[in-house]
Write a structure and sequence with these properties.
Strand content: 5-15%
Distance between the termini: 84 Å
Number of domains: 2
Structural class: alpha+beta
Number of helices: 18
Order of helices and strands: HHEHHHEEHEHEEEHEEHHEHHEHHHHHH
Oligomer: single chain
Strand order of the largest sheet: 1-2-7-4
Length: 388
């Protein structure tokens, strides 16, 4: 027996189901919810094709891999009629910088906020299933352009840094959706742009990766650079600073986000429990840990080819930008990586030595057989410390 008839010809039943979904969603970890139609996602489709053709996607795949699929909800569910968009905030809490030498982690990865989002969206999906409808959760799986779904559902507008900004509360939100064949009332009015003449995200980007309003050159964006495989481009190594995973700079300076940070910094006690994986990771620990230990701790991050060397490579750049070159522990780590079997890590260890003014440690690699390592030795690096 088909139990899915009422919504087809009774608007009151559709409105009631939407109300129940909204009430349930907001009783979970979801901070915002909206309903969108399942037509092809625009402007995402046009934008993805255009920016891919212009080379602005760098080596990024994600929704760039197949824009026609990631912008068509009906490819995931041919019978779909509605997208239920949800957002979970991750902007709460202040974490102080640790005393030990550490790499900085982007706020969205302080803990697994997507797990909270996924759990809440599954509750919405379960409600729909209990009413006889099909429902699929799509969350951080690159099957749909989450920001466009949320934009169409009326959750927020596209900021100049390309993030979705929710009115009055900013962009520190993870986004996902439930795709369903329930025919629910959907949003018809997009949220008006509220960025106005503000240019702070342009000015705050350390690598000038924002090349136009809402346009990011992924090849210049630190958030992508530290995820991508291969060597970190020389021109961005100094700018990476202590950023180990992700980059929050364009969001940190955004006025609604900045207002939240200022309010929290005025609070005497931090509201976010600090754990080893909150906002910082010890660089000494990371560079001395086994591959198994490292992946056990940071394995939920996006790491190209699941290769621990990608994280260690970035940590060596962090080391060069922030460490004390006279610290015996740092010297031991540098010597360890100059002798590492992986030439990618030897290359970044060379750069770290030169950045720290410790060219005296480079003797073991001067006759290195790897061509890329030899090329690294020819690179000019601005040292943070001069000779004694």
């Amino acid at each position: 027996m088909d139990t899915r008839g009422p919504e087809q010809g009774a608007p009151c039943e559709r409105d009631d189901l939407a109300r129940r979904i909204r009430e349930l969603a907001l009783s979970t970890s979801l901070d915002s919810i909206g309903f969108a139609s399942t037509e092809v996602l625009e402007p995402a489709r046009t934008v993805l094709h255009s920016r891919k053709a212009r080379g602005l996607s760098a080596t990024m795949n994600f929704t760039y891999r197949n824009p026609d699929r990631s912008t068509d909800p009906t490819q995931a569910m041919p019978t779909a009629k509605t997208l239920v968009a949800g957002a979970v905030g991750y902007g709460g809490g202040v974490v102080q910088e640790p005393a030990e030498l550490s790499g900085r982690v982007a706020r969205y990865s302080w803990r697994d906020h997507y797990a909270d989002l996924r759990t809440s969206l599954e509750e919405v999906a379960d409600l729909l299933r209990s009413e006889g409808y099909a429902a699929q959760v799509h969350c951080d799986d690159n099957s749909l352009v989450d920001r466009n779904v949320a934009y169409r559902a009326g959750l927020g507008w596209y900021g100049k840094n390309s993030n979705l900004l929710l009115p009055d509360v900013g962009s520190w939100f993870v986004l996902g959706s439930v795709l369903t064949d329930a025919d629910l009332p959907t949003n018809s009015e997009p949220v008006a742009d509220q960025c106005g003449s503000c240019q702070r995200c342009f000015e705050g980007c350390p690598t000038d990766a924002i090349v136009g309003p809402g346009i990011i050159d992924a090849g210049r964006c630190i958030a992508w650079i530290v995820q991508a495989e291969g060597p970190i481009p020389l021109e961005f190594r100094e700018a990476i600073g202590d950023r180990l995973y992700g980059c929050d700079d364009c969001q940190d300076v955004c006025p609604p986000n900045r207002a939240l940070v200022i309010a929290e910094e005025a609070t005497p006690v931090a509201t976010l429990p600090t754990t080893e994986m909150d906002a910082w990771v010890s660089l000494v620990w990371l560079l001395m840990a086994s591959d198994e230990e490292l992946m056990d701790r940071v394995g939920r991050w996006y790491i190209a080819k699941r290769d621990p060397a990608v994280v260690r490579r970035t940590a060596l750049v962090n080391l060069g930008n922030t460490a004390d070159p006279s610290d015996p522990e740092i010297v031991t780590i540098l010597e360890r990586y100059l002798d590492h079997q992986n030439p990618l890590l030897r290359r970044h260890a060379i750069w770290a030595c030169r950045r720290l003014g410790r060219d005296d440690l480079l003797g073991p690699v001067m006759d290195d057989p790897d061509d890329d390592v030899q090329e690294e030795l020819t690179v000019s690096v601005v040292a943070r410390f001069g000779p004694d």
